[in-house]
Structure formats: C-alpha cells, structure tokens
Amino acid sequence: MKRVQQGFTLIELMIVVAIIGILAAVALPAYQDYTIRSQMTEPINLADGAKAAVADYWSNTGNFPTTSADAGFAGASGKYTTGVEIGDNGVITATVGNEANTAIANKVVTLTPEATTEGNLKWTCGSDADAKYLPVACRAAGSGT
Predict the structure, then answer these.
(1) What per-residue confidence (pLDDT) applies to 29?
(2) Measuring CA to CA, which residue among 43, 33, 15 is closest to residue 127?
(3) What is the average pLDDT across 122-126?
(4) Which CATH number fits domain 10-139: 3.30.360.10, 3.30.700.10, 3.40.50.300, 3.40.50.740?
(5) Which region holds residue 11: left if phi is over 0, alpha if psi is between -120 and 50, else beta?
(6) pLDDT per residue over 25-36, tens digit each?
(7) Quick check: pTM over 0.90?
(8) Strands (E), 80-120
C-alpha cells in the first residue's frame, strides 16, 4: 500500500520562511523612507496658510511682510511640525519636530517668495533635510512650488 504525503516537509517550510525574510529585509528600509517623506509633507502643507497671508500682504502693500504679525498670520503647528513663521522678506520657515522621525527632527523647510514680472509670486522651496526625504517640488535646488 502506497502512503500519500500530507502537508509540507521541513525543508519546504524553511525555504518559504527564508523568502519571506528576504522580502522583509528589502521592504522595511523602503517603507521607513516613505514614512519620513510623508511626515515631511506636513510642514509644507501647514505653510500654505502662511503663503496666502504673504500673498495678501504683498498684493495690498506691494512689499513683503517682515513678521507673522505683519501678515496677520497666527502661526501653525502640527503632529510633526513645531512651528511655521513668517520672517524678513516674507520668507516662511517651518521647523520639523514634535513626533517626527529622528532623521528629520529639527530640520527646517523654507519657502521664499519672489515677485515675477507678470505680477505673481513664485515660491522657492529649500531645506536642510536630506533631499530624499523632501517632496518632489522641493528636491531640486531653487525649485518653485
């Protein structure tokens, strides 16, 4: 009488476990970078309110504000952002902190306005964070947002 094999052999199970381990070793670093990039978008999104305040001030006066108070901006903060402020020449500074990953903690994102000849504002994004963690609009030096 012939006996039929039931289930998997130990070697087959070990091969499956090894394959899963290799896939996990590749996926975890990529997922961590993705998580950091998603955290880095928060200060840029919070800066949108400051961009509107700077644009309003500029359209009304023809000059850039020198403080958040001049622009009527109360500031902003979030889960990964300690603060967003407006400084000299309308430059918006967003500081990453709070619960942010240590790779981007205490890094700064700046948005610098520039008046164009068409009468619009062009925003230049910059940061001291590693470029791989920045949104695409901020990765190239001197990029506009």
Answers:
(1) 83
(2) 43
(3) 92
(4) 3.30.700.10
(5) alpha
(6) 988 888 888 899
(7) no
(8) 81-86, 92-96, 108-115
